[in-house]
């Protein structure tokens, strides 16, 4: 076997390097469990993303503001003659808002 620190050629099963004194068993035996314990809590605390929250707010604001302006225009000026095209664009804007909210929700779920 080869010492990972100094590269000396050592008998198989050596616990210490006879050249530099490097411990040969400790790194490979203890490092992986330490990494697993380190990443497990991080994965559990995921599910929150500031970028996802921002997208959720933007999507909700788009949908709500368009709905508010739609209601305001109807109340102020009455129903337009081409109300179906207005409703169609209303649904389009709601769809865009919902899509942005969906991306934000997905980011939250991924925790990115
Ligand atoms: Zn060594």
**How many distinct helices?**
3
Please trace the helix and strand order, writing H or E for each element.
HHH
Radius of gyration over alpha carbons?
30 Å
Please give the largest β-sheet: none
Throw out a few tags for this protein.
mainly alpha; 2 domains; rod-shaped; binds zinc ion
Give structural notes.
The chain is mainly alpha-helical and 112 residues long. Mean pLDDT is 77; it is low at 40-45. The protein folds into two domains: 1-45, no CATH class; 50-110. The two termini are 41 Å apart. The chain has three helices and no strands. The longest helix has 28 residues, at 50-77. The protein is 67% helix and 0% strand. Residues 3, 5-6, 8, 17, 19-20, 22 line the site of zinc ion.
What's the layout of helices and strands?
Layout lengths: L25 H19 L5 H28 L5 H28 L2
Helix pairs in contact: 2-3
The protein binds zinc ion.
Summarize the structure.
This protein has helices at 26-44, 50-77, 83-110. The protein has 112 residues and is mainly α. The protein folds into two domains: 1-45, no CATH class; 50-110.
């Amino acid at each position: 076997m080869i010492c990972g620190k100094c590269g000396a050629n050592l008998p198989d099963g050596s616990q210490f390097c006879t050249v530099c004194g490097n411990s040969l068993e400790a790194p490979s035996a203890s490092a992986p469990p330490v990494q697993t314990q380190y990443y497990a809590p991080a994965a559990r605390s995921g599910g929150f993303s500031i970028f996802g929250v921002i997208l959720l707010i933007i999507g909700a604001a788009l949908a709500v503001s368009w709905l508010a302006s739609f209601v305001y225009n109807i109340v102020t000026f009455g129903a337009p003659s081409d109300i179906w095209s207005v409703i169609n664009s209303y649904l389009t804007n709601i769809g865009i808002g919902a899509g942005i909210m969906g991306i934000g929700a997905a980011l939250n779920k991924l925790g990115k």
